[in-house]
Amino acid sequence: MKEVIDYIITWLCYGDEEAAKRVAYTADEKALESYDVIIVPNGHLGKDLVAPELKRPVVEQPAKGKSIIRTDIVYTTFFFTSRAEEVINTKRDEHGRFAARFSMLNEKSRLQIPRLDEYGRMVLKLLDLPLPEPGFGHIYLTHDIDAIAQYRSLRGALGGIRRGETKAVLAALRDIHNDPLYTFPWILEQDAKVKHADSIYFVKRTKGRGYDYPQYCLWGRDFRRLKHMLRHSNVYLGVHGSYYGSIPKIEYSKMYRAHYLRCSIEQMQRLADAGYTDDFTMGFADQAGFRLQTSRAVRWINPTTMRLTNLTLHPLIIMDNTLNQANYMNLTEDEAYFLCERLIDKVRLHHGDLCLLWHNSNLNDTTYHASLYEKIISCI
Asked: What is the DSSP string of 82-103?
């Protein structure tokens, strides 16, 4: 338990280990003789899982330079970054996901506030330390490759012909760049406009059945050419896991994102056990915002075992499908841009990590995702 508490306090202090040594997690107010800040426990950490009250922390300052935080921000940090809410709330959507609409964060625009980052700034202020400069710690421009092309497989070509799209099929078969899903050159061009950003493409490693369809041929000519182009462009490749929860063996990457953002506590532990180090799944499919209540990367604590793992969670702030789909947020392009701008400003204020997910298969004339992505790229 000490390892968990020490990690959370250091994380709240933005990784400043010396600052964390000045903070104690105790109900003994005499500890102020040795520490500058004490956080009073609520008695739930390591005992029982209950939802924390989301209110402004109660802070007392009995002497100059000494502070008592009577709201247990350590437990609240654990609760959201460990995903403990999903243990006590068993509601799931049609894909078996814990959706935003089931969460306590779905009320009063709570998802649009990185509350834990605000707690961290509060602790630094109480310690009379400088706050992080506004800006981005990291920028992750991520793309899930659910399909490389629409017409380049036998099934795709026949389906297109049956729908009367013969000209488009033939054009795509002559040159993959004519295929409506092959938008990778355009994405690379956009991403290159953002200096110091990391572009990550998550590659499917599934059997291609059910919700995993289609599975492109990883040793086929189309994928080999795409892979060569991506690596020549200095982007990273990650693993896009199966909808059905199987964990691929680590071959070329320790970065992972679950298909459909479908991921359970048990699956997270299997990821950690398999040696994956970075997960980029942590966003709600039905609502954009701060699912973990932070914009900063955080190591995952298993809420059922209370073990600190080596798996780092990277909060997913905005996904393209979330914004426009009728069963999700159903926003117009202007509404979507306004929301994205607000969320990005929050990340920038707290010197957090901006993680976006745009699918290559959504950049067509039927959605606003291409024009919206251009606008977002220009503002970061």
From this structure: TTTHHHH-----TTS---GGGS
Question: Exposed, middle or buried: residue 324 (CB in 10 Å: 0-12, 13-18, 19+)?
Answer: buried
pTM: 0.95
Closest CA to 86 of 107, 105, 110: 105
- Contact call for residues 268 and 81 (beta carbons, < 8 A): no
Q: With contact defined as beta carbons under 8 Å apart, do 32 and 62 qualify?
A: yes
Comparison of pLDDT for 364 and 323, the residue scoring more = 323
Run of H or E including 309: strand 307-313
Residue 250 gets which letter from DSSP?
P
Q: What count of Cα atoms within 13 Å lies in the side-chain half-sphere of residue 191?
A: 26
Report d(CA 165, CA 221) in Å as an integer.
24
Please, what are the domains in the chain? 2-126 (no CATH), 138-379 (3.20.20)
CA distance readout (Å), 166 to 154, 162, 362: 13, 8, 21
